[in-house]
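pinging the channel bc i need a second pair of eyes. not urgent but kinda urgent?? the chain im working w is below, pasted from the shared doc
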Amino acid sequence: MTRSLVSLLVLLLAEILSSRHGTEAACYPTGSNCVPTSPFMTSVSWKDCQQYCNKCRGYAVGDCVRVFNEYCKGNFQCKCKGNKIPLTKNRLELATCQLGL
């Protein structure tokens, strides 16, 4: 039991560290809210672009847009824009923002 729990935590941590969700540099193959895909077993619940921009970055609008640059090559990125709004005050939400979830 303990060994499988540790393995699951290691997989989850690896997924979090390998993902760059919500950053300007992250690219996604589809425009479905710029949400990374997760292995079935990790059950990570990612914020979509709108949620990330609202809760983590403090912007009113989050759009998943197609970007043609050397890095993304026509894939999609989350772009935060619009008026500044207060960040979430929920500690759990803030922690997940720091982890990129």
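so Strands lie at 59-66, 76-84. and The longest strand covers residues 76-84. — does that match what u expected or am i reading it wrong
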